[in-house]
Automatic annotation (TrEMBL):
EC number: 2.3.1.39
GO BP terms: fatty acid biosynthetic process
Protein name (Swiss-Prot/TrEMBL): Malonyl CoA-acyl carrier protein transacylase
UniProt-listed Gene3D superfamilies: Malonyl-CoA ACP transacylase, ACP-binding (3.30.70.250), Malonyl-Coenzyme A Acyl Carrier Protein, domain 2 (3.40.366.10)
Similarity-based family: Belongs to the fabD family.
Any one of the GO CC terms: cytosol
Principal EC category: transferase
Amino acid sequence: MSAKQFEQATLATKTAFLFPGQGSQKVGMLAELAEQFSSVQATFTEASEAVGFNLWHIAQSGEGLNQTEFTQPVLLTASIALWRVWLELGGVVPKYLAGHSLGEYSALVAAGALSLGDAVKLVNLRGKLMQDAVPQGQGAMSAILGLDDAKVLELCEQVNLQGRGSVEAANYNAKGQVVIAGDKTQVEAVMELAKENGGKAIALPVSVPSHCSLMKPAAQLFAEALEQTAIELPHIPVIQNVNAEVATDVAQLRQALTAQLYESVQWTKTMQLIQDQGVQFVAECGPGNVLANMAKRLPNIEKAFPLDSKTRLEDALNAILVAEGKIA
């Protein structure tokens, strides 16, 4: 589909596609769909040739799947494989695309802003730089539940004033759900304070404290790779993580992708923008259903669909085609 056809197709839809980030990976992802759709294997082969190692083997065996430098290209490729199957089956072109953290790269590939080959190389490098930025075991992330954003920021500031490291809000995921990141000791201190203030705190099983200032050294190196990568304006509007705005300028797009490494993911604002623009249906284009489940709680979203199995994909395809008036 050409850029003009994409742009025309999005005008008529009330659907947005969401692309998940790291943490959604699971061993055996897309195996069932690969048996039915040759484009799944073809997409993994294309991406593997670009990055220089077998992404399908990692996805199916689990070997290295939780190592950030491998996780990121595998997840991106899985999302694009699903996207291609969706279009192959005649699925509607969404009005908006958005990706959570790593998922922003999947959204940009789907929108024609980045080639799949360039994107998997970028996120492989991104994963390496992130892993190298903080020694193993020194960083941490935690989900803080049940407190408003201002209270979480207040607790982070309270701990930071002690001057033994830093902790920051990394992801504003939903009302009453903020992920924090930083030095492990500081993160643990905020977790204790959150519990004392009536909230819940869940340590996340990650090896890298993403979206905080500890990632600034990685971002400086990553910016150089971004400058050398061909990027176009997206053919479908892509909402960026750092400002919850639609990318309209390539230089701004590169800058936002660099800043995304050390600034917060504005997912709450992203989903509010999607609702404000009349979107009623969302589909999560990748393994799992975390983003779809969060979207289901929003007042203006009628239905949210995961796509990562044959049954789920068919259900979403039919339901959205009917809702959009494409079939009776």
